[in-house]
From TrEMBL:
Membrane-spanning segments: none
Keyword Flavoprotein: yes
Source lineage: Eukaryota, Metazoa, Chordata, Craniata, Vertebrata
Keyword Flavoprotein: yes
MF (Gene Ontology): oxidoreductase activity
Domain Amine oxidase as annotated: residue spans: 35-163
Protein role: Probable oxidoreductase that may play a role as regulator of mitochondrial function.
Domain of life of the native organism: Eukaryota
UniProt name for this protein: Pyridine nucleotide-disulfide oxidoreductase domain-containing protein 2
Pfam families, alphabetized: Amino_oxidase
C-alpha cells in the first residue's frame, strides 16, 4: 500500500500527503487503495533534461507540443487533416485494415492504421463488432474508465498571494508560483475522506487541488499583470448521487467549493477571478473523447496494466484487426505526456510494414 511505502521513507505528514496526490491523480482511488503506489511510480519515472522525476511546462501551452510533433511529421512528408472526424476503419475482404473513412465521405487508403483514440472509441465505435472476437469486445467494454477529475481553467487579474508565503510588494512571481501548488493535502486522511465522498456520489467537500500558474513561466498566455491558473481537482463522480447529472448549477456549486478552499489559503483569490471554465468528467468525455473523462483512457490499476492493457494478449500494440494498432494512452504503458505508447507502437508498425 502507498501509505506503507511513504511511512518507510518519510516522517512529515504534509510531505507524505503531497506525494500521495501523484498516487491518486486521475484515479478514482484513495491512497489506501491497493496498487496506488504504482500510480506514484508512473508519475516520477523517467527524466526531463537529465533530472530524474522532473516535470516541465510546455511553452505556449500543451497544444504547442502537439504542434511540434505535427511540424516534425509534415517536415518528413506527412499530411495532417485537422477537424476531420473519422467515421470508421476501412476493412478488406480478409478483415484487415485498409484505411479510414471520414464523416464527410472521404476515404483515406493505407496499409496500416494507428489509433491514438481510446480503446473504447477504436474498437467499439470505429470497428464493426462482428469483426472482433467476442471475448475481446467484452474486455474492452469492461475496462474501468471511472474518473474523479474536474479541471477548472481560471483567468485572474493578479497573482494569488498565499498566507504561507505572501507576495512581494512589487507583485512579482515568487519561486512557489512557478511550481505545482498542492492544497487540501495536509494529511493522507484528508485525501481518503475526499475519495470516500465521491465514491458515494457526492463531490468532495474539501477537494484535492493541484494549482499551477503557467503564465508565470510563459507570459504570452495572459495580458500583462494577468495570469491563467490551472486547477486539477478531485474527487468528483461522473454521475452524482440519485442519478443526477452535472447541470450548470452542480458545476458551479462544485467550482465555488474549490474557490472557497483556495480563498482559505490565498485570501483575495475569488476577487481576482475574471473568468472560469469548468470541465467535469462528462465534459472531458464529450469534448476530448476521454472515456468516462479518464485522462489515461482507462484506470491505471494493476489489473489494467502491462500485459493486460488494453486486454490480455493485445498489450503489444497489435489488435485483432490485422494492420490496426493502438498507440494512445489506453495502450501499454498507459497515460502521461511521455510518448512511450506512441513510440513503441510505431516500432511495431514499422517492423510489420517491412513484411507487407
Amino acid at each position: 500500500l502507498l501509505d506503507q511505502i511513504l511511512d518507510l521513507w518519510f516522517e512529515s505528514e504534509p510531505l507524505k500527503a503531497t506525494l500521495a496526490t501523484d498516487a491518486v491523480i486521475g484515479a478514482m482511488a484513495s491512497p489506501h487503495t491497493p496498487g496506488s503506489g504504482y500510480v506514484l511510480l508512473h508519475h516520477v519515472m523517467g527524466e526531463l533534461e537529465g533530472r530524474r522525476g522532473a516535470w516541465g511546462y510546455v511553452a505556449g501551452g500543451m497544444g504547442a507540443l502537439s504542434q511540434a510533433i505535427a511540424q516534425a511529421a509534415t517536415a518528413r512528408g506527412a499530411h495532417i487533416f485537422a477537424e476531420k472526424a473519422v467515421c470508421h476503419v476501412l476493412l478488406g475482404r480478409d478483415g484487415e485494415a485498409q484505411g479510414v473513412a471520414l464523416q464527410d465521405g472521404t476515404e483515406v487508403r493505407s496499409k496500416l492504421v494507428l489509433s491514438n483514440a481510446s480503446p473504447q472509441i477504436t474498437f467499439l465505435e470505429l470497428i464493426p463488432q462482428e469483426q472482433l472476437p467476442k471475448d475481446f469486445v467484452q474486455r474492452i467494454q469492461q475496462v474501468d474508465t471511472c474518473s474523479p477529475v474536474t479541471k477548472i481553467n481560471v483567468a485572474v487579474d493578479r497573482l494569488p498571494s498565499f498566507l504561507a508565503a505572501p507576495n512581494a510588494r512589487d507583485g512579482q512571481p515568487l519561486p512557489h508560483h512557478q511550481c505545482s501548488i498542492h492544497l487540501n493535502c495536509e494529511d493522507i486522511q484528508l485525501l481518503h475522506q475526499a475519495f470516500t465522498e465521491a465514491a458515494h456520489g457526492h463531490p468532495s467537500s474539501r477537494p484535492m487541488i493541484e494549482l499551477c500558474i503557467p503564465s508565470v513561466l510563459d507570459p504570452g498566455l495572459a495580458p500583462p499583470g494577468c495570469h491563467v491558473v490551472s486547477l486539477f481537482t478531485q474527487y468528483t463522480p461522473s454521475m452524482l448521487a440519485g442519478s443526477r447529472s452535472w447541470d450548470e448549477q452542480a458545476r458551479n456549486a462544485y467550482a465555488d467549493t474549490v474557490f472557497d478552499c483556495i480563498e482559505d489559503y490565498a485570501p483575495g483569490f475569488k476577487a481576482s477571478v475574471i473568468g472560469r471554465d469548468i470541465l467535469t468528467p462528462p465534459d472531458l468525455e464529450r469534448i476530448f473523447g476521454l472515456p468516462g473523462g479518464n485522462i489515461f483512457h482507462g484506470g491505471m490499476s494493476l489489473d489494467q496494466l502491462y500485459f493486460a492493457r488494453p486486454a490480455p494478449s493485445y498489450s503489444g500494440y497489435r489488435s485483432p484487426i490485422p494492420g490496426l494498432y493502438l498507440c494512445g494512452s489506453g495502450a501499454h504503458p498507459g497515460g502521461g505526456v511521455m510518448g512511450a505508447a506512441g513510440r513503441n507502437a510505431a516500432q511495431v508498425a514499422i517492423e510489420d510494414f517491412r513484411h507487407l
